[in-house]
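Table S2 (continued). Query chain:
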Amino acid sequence: MNSPRTLFDKIWDMHEITCNEDGDSLLYVDRCLIHEGSRHSFDKMARTGQQVARPDQIYAFSDHYVPTLGRASGLDGVGDPAIRGMIELLAANADIHGFHHYGLEHPQQGILHVVAPELAITQPGLLMVGADSHTSTHGALGALAFGIGASETRHVLTTQTIWQQRPRNMRIVVEGTLPFGCTPKDIILAVIARIGAGGAVGHAIEYAGSTIRNLSMEGRMTVCNMSIEAGGRAGMIAPDATTYAYLEGREFAPKGDAWRKALEYWETLPSDDGAQFDREVRLNAEEITPMVTWGTSPEHATLITDRVPDPADASTPEARADLEAALDYMQLAPGVSLQSIAVDRVFIGSCTNGRLEDLQAAAEVARLGRAQVTTWVVPGSQAVKKEAEALGLDRVFMDAGFEWRDPGCSLCTAINGDELAPGERCASTSNRNFKGRQGRGGLTHLVSPAMAAAAAITGSLTDVRTLSSSGEAN
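Corresponding output:
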């Protein structure tokens, strides 16, 4: 009798072609996601005369470098010649090699980790890789998905395979009902605060428990997206009725009899009863509150009702030095109330929180007041933008003094002209807050969309639960 297996083990074993004596596995890759920054792989391929092995399984997106303003005139609106050249080069390589391309002027353009699930390019049981670390997002649909580097991308493009060391299994179980004002972003920040930025190194994470099962697909994507911030190789959630309802009818989803057969397979994927995990962490959802980061790592996250920690309370000299360096960069003093920290900018968007559900949550708060600081709302895709506009969310944001922009990575990556000035402090729905992430000298506080909108209308980090219908803090 076969031993019980995890969701991860089932997908890995299905895709393993061979395993060498060093323990490296050669895996077949179902989907490879690239963007305009993947040009180096194609440069090397051109010099060696290599071709794309399976162009039908390669999906390219213009997202990391595209501007989020001035897009009405298409490429003519891209002022930076270097960025324009990258966008044009991706289109040229798509023409040469024949892979799928969602370029700047494509009606389904957007962030690769938003568009691929929207189109059902992402499906349960697939092994997916992407030229971006947040490829873990796609594990929310029951896929095994992880980011790869430039040399690995080239290997996948030319062979449709990749060599990898098999990670260990880790399960993070969250049980209970999320309290009012708490979101999937707060779940994953609470997880990282608990286990640390290196807490899942060498592991593929499976998120489980009643709290996770009750999340929407969009919420699940937020959780899996930041698995890499906990050091995980991948983040996964077992497919279920929520997954199937989300996928059905989308462009690349199986149709007719193929859909029935796909469901039969997908239903075999969840971890078996008795499957063994190398590590397990459990959280009580009812103890989670709105979170905010105060330092330069996602593990520097705490309750919005807390104060900036004191390095003197650190358990080791190394930890003390780490806290002192973080506070020095963030220009914060120990003991300061987090809710007293004024912000200069607010960013709502990214592959973490740029989906419709995120914008709806932010809009509900935006209705309570008017922006006191510059606030950008950047949809994750053209589809999200159109859906939001059909619901009138763009008007809600603009009436509240927020800026409504075109889809792209924007201020999350700060490599597209959207960046903080040195010393500017930003409440951001993105996924990283290390030094200079949003611009040289920029100071980033990671929060949920609702918390970001609350910071926008108060001008400070704010517990969204304290806002009344008048937009004033109770």
